[in-house]
Amino acid sequence: MTKNTGRSAAAILATGLIIGMSSQAVADENAELIVEGEQLVTKVAAPEGHPLDELFSGWRFRSDETQALQTDDFENPAFAAVDYGAELWETGAGTSGKSCASCHGDASESMKGLRASMPKWHEGENTLMTLEDHINWSQKEHPGADPWKWESAEMLAMTAFLGLQSRGMPVNVKIDGPAEDWFNKGRELYYTRVGQLDMSCSNCHEDNYGNMIRADHLSQGQINGFPTYRLKWQGLGSTHRRFKGCMDNIRATPFKRGSDEFTSLELYLAWRGSGLSVETPAVRQ
Amino acid sequence: MTKGARLWSAAFATCLAGTFSVSALHAETIAPTAVEIVDMEAKSSLTGKTGDPIAGRDTFADRKKGNCLACHANADLAELLFHGEVGPELDGVGDRWSTEQLRAIVINSKQVFGDQTIMPGFYTPALGARIADKFTDKTILSAQEVEDVVAYLLTLKEN
Questions:
Q1: What is the value of ipTM here, to two decimals?
Q2: Taking CB atoms and an 8 Å cutoff, what residues of chain A touch B131?
Q3: DSSP β-bridge partners for residue A204
């Protein structure tokens, strides 16, 4: 799986020894992710027309310690937010005082599979909507309830809680019909070089996954684990926050969270991870 | 420079204030838009002088400057952790390339390796879309820093 251009394993080992690279950076790339007794798909053959042959979850590229945090829901630091999400699910909002549960009942049934198909076309609004958009659309149905901010504790908790209801299900987004234009736009953005460092997403996540970039082990930049608990953030963050982070790093002006640009990019990236299990809430460095 | 010319430029600098007087002081610095790379070589020093390899070593490693270690392993900097694997190891690079070629690689690697390379151009106006405000109209390295890095790369010999 290592896509190391022109460097032998021996050379890597030698460098590792010379520069004293700590074992922390290098994980077992063949480990399988078993969460609460269920094996998730972290490696899968790519669908037809995909630029890569095999797809890997970002989990495979993380250190042993970080990997371990995701195998046990009691260890996974994201679960405080999941619990908050479950609480919000039952809490009445707006003037009607109705909760999500009063209309949708048991989330483990009504919300199962939703995250695996996101973002998706919304007939009523006639646009492509992320999970966040769907949540706020539903909030609108509550007279007097305010929409949640993209990166608010409430939104992160709810996307984590709803995402968990699809954990283990294969990512499977619709990219035809009215979604096709968005998909094409997302692909264009993925390959556009931006910022003072003049890089595209593909430079790092398609051409160089498996390679170290300074202290970071580059993954394919998959989004199947979002919202993700990042140790660096000391909390959960949305898919669009991660996009923003990568664009900031290459010294580009990021698009806004929830913008059409990031929503198209999200659709394209979701498709690039087709068949990987939803891992929400994942843990990353 | 004749006395007359110096007076003339001094007068000009006074009229146009700050920026102009700076460029007048460094009149020999080649601007990013004026750099010529022909056959993978940038012939002239950007500053008209040879760079300082010691300063170049720092610029090479500095995450906010060259950050070359992000992508390249370099045994000469073994004291620093985390060398990247995206580009080739740079040990012995001073034997493999000439001064003029190394200068071209650092200024705008695309003119040496082709448009597809991931390596940024460190002294070129041809950059990506949507550059963050803070970095607009700026090169990643200054002319002096490029010359320093080139001087440092030339010290990386096979044993």
A1: 0.88
A2: 194-196, 251-253
A3: none
